[in-house]
Amino acid sequence: MTSPFSLLLPVYGRDDPAQLIRAFRSAVDEQTLRPTEALIVRDGPVPDALAAVVDELVATSPVPTRVLALPENVGLAHALTAGLAACTHDVVARMDADDVAMPQRFAKQLALLDSGYDLVGSGLYEFEDDESVTIGVRTPPTGVEHIKRYARFHDPFNHPTVVYRRGAVQRAGGYVPVGLMEDYWLFARMLASGARAENLPEPLVKYRVGAGAYRRRGGFGQLQAELRLQRLMRRAGMTTPAETVRNVIVRGGYRLVPESLRKVAYRALLHRGFRRGASS
To answer: What is the rounded distance in angstroms from the CA atom of residue 157 to the CA atom of residue 122?
Structure first.
């Protein structure tokens, strides 16, 4: 018997109404296994057009759907923390407001999670404007030992694809803002705290690579966040001193290269990380 689960979908003022409709319908209406409930977290004030779409989704959803309205924009980490606390069920599926879920996503992930896992991710397709045109595929590491090795150098999960147990998230300390890497830091702590985790290599989400995606990964602010993340991981004993130096040079240096090179470097590091995780 499949566990009941909540869909957790944060929305903020810059989200596109049409993309939100597509994301929600793909994760609810079109699923072969629908969520038991959906929770839309409205992270601060939103434009009237976006608010109208949220109201429409609540009114027409085939599953019970609620809105958690935060009075101020608090950022993704805090919005997800508030959303997790408000979800009815311990099993929670993540979804972003501009991505597209494959119809069999939850059926496949819940089948694995119900076999005893605390965290289940998947591969994803990358697209820009047209979801039918794939520009890349991210295949995550599989197997607990591979995932743990990989986590010393890179995020082992594609955040928009994960389904997890709220209790396991809370035992690890929940989301903590670290630049754009709050998910990486959470997953590393979940693994360190004994969470049983796995990835399905099959792409089960179409991930929108929007304008500015690579620009946001760079700059001095993200370099500072990267240095903080590496200090946190070292203090927690998740990396060795040599691995910390390697990460500061490689991952930190990536934050400072021009955006045109950052896109190429990101894909190269991603695939290099998979190979390193498999052989280390």
So the answer is: 7
